[in-house]
Amino acid sequence: MDSEQKNQSNDDIPPSPPENKYIDDLTIQLLLNKTNYAKYLSKTDEQKYEEQQQFVLDCEQYQNPILDMTKHMMRDPLLSYSSEVNDAFNQYARILIRYLEVKERSDEHQKDNGHASSDEEDVLFPSTMNEPPNPLRTKKPVPKKTGRRMTMDHFIPRIKDTDDD
């Protein structure tokens, strides 16, 4: 293979587009929980990790004013802080309402089907705990070995023939 053919075969492989990095980052973010994603960011993207940590600190610092603004906007829908705040609040409220409606339907569905609601105590396999044991799965005692040869008479009682032919 000459050098021109090598260059041509390398040109056949397209470079990785920048959109793949965005998709990869989004996939990682959706697959990991918040704690593991923060660890991942601290190792791979220090700047993004620091921005996220600063956001957490800002949320803690401004928690009370944020809650107060939210309460005021819930009580008075005509109250206006800014168009950006109003739009974000409306979007946030719609998402929460949708979430709560789905959760409510899910809880009703579970109640209708006899499943425990999410508020009750979580128990692994609750339906199997109340069922009687399966007689086919219970172990029967094994006869002791006595040095004698075992026959089927030890396991199945012999039926005596009552016919006097």
Task: Provide a quick synopsis of the model.
The protein is mainly alpha-helical and 165 residues long. The chain is built from seven helices and no strands.
Task: Give the arrangement of secondary structure elements.
Elements: H1 3-11, H2 18-31, H3 34-44, H4 46-61, H5 63-75, H6 83-112, H7 126-129
Helix pairs in contact: 3-4
Would you write up a description of this structure?
This protein is mainly α. Among the domains are: 17-61, no CATH class; 64-114. Helices cover 59% and strands 0% of the residues. The chain has helices spanning 3-11, 18-31, 34-44, 46-61, 63-75, 83-112, 126-129. Helix 3 packs across helix 4. The longest helix has 30 residues, at 83-112. It is elongated, with a radius of gyration of 34 Å. The termini are far apart. The relative contact order is 0.03.
What are the defining features of this structure?
7 helices, mainly alpha, 0% strand, elongated, single chain, 165 residues
